[in-house]
Amino acid sequence: MKPGPILAIVAGALVNVGVVLVVVYAMVIGAASSRLPWKPVSESFALRPVLDMRAAPCAAGWIAGQDNASCYQLDQATEVTAEKATANFGPSGQWVIQVTLNEADGREFTALTEKVHQLPQPRNQLAIVIGGKVISAPTVLEPIPGRVLEITGGFDKKTAEELAARLGGG
Q1: Are 21 and 45 in contact (CB under 8 A)?
Q2: Helices and strands (H and E) in the chain: how many
Q3: CA–CA separation, 40 vs 51, rounded Å?
Q4: Would you tell me how many other CB atoms lie within 10 Å of the CB of residue 34?
Q5: Is the distance from CB of 126 to CB of 52 less than 8 angstroms?
Q6: What is the pLDDT of residue 85?
Q7: The predicted structure's pLDDT at residue 23
Q8: Which of 83, 123, 157, 165 is deepest in the core (most CB within 10 A)?
Q9: pLDDT on residue 87
Q10: d(CA 79, CA 81)
Q11: Which of 142, 168, 147, 121 is nearest to 26 (CA)?
Q12: What region does 100 belong to: left with phi over 0, alpha with psi -120 to 50, or beta?
């Protein structure tokens, strides 16, 4: 395999991880902004392993991505709640939403990442679902221990702060 496709796969996986972190942040924002592409939700959001993924239009039982260009077939949901979510400008030069889960949800998240990281693509992706849409479906490259998630995905300051507020930020 040539280096180009490998780099594209790695870059795609990193972008997906960032998007998951951003999605978690967006869920905390709530209804603070009418320009967000998802409906207001409570502090909880769903983490769902990806079973399959394809381009739109979505078949029955599949869930659309926030861009409406991708469709996801997902496994059972794990509902989690953010204790805290903040938006910060990260060292990579992009906005990062840092989400802290409660103890029990942190254990669930760790167990979920331990399970999916060893599966083949796309089953090694973990979808963040808010308001019936897949906000992000990053690839899990290794188990993620603890209670803290980071979401990245090319957010500007306003969108990152809105997502953090929706997920549980002050």
Answers
A1: no
A2: 3, 8
A3: 26
A4: 6
A5: no
A6: 87
A7: 45
A8: 165
A9: 92
A10: 7
A11: 168
A12: beta
In the chain (170 residues long), the average pLDDT of successive 10-residue segments reads 55 48 44 40 74 96 90 93 88 88 92 94 89 83 89 79 73
3-state secondary structure 87-114: EEECCCCCEEEEEEECHHHHHHHHHHHH
CA distance 47 to 2: 34
Q: Are 112 and 76 in contact (CB under 8 A)?
A: no
Measure the CA–CA gap between 68 and 70, rounded to whole angstroms. 6
Q: Give me 10's structure tokens.
A: 């790695």
Handedness of CA 12, 137, 142, 92 (dihedral sign): positive
Q: Which of 114, 138, 115 has the alpha carbon at shortest distance from 23?
A: 138
d(CA 168, CA 42): 9
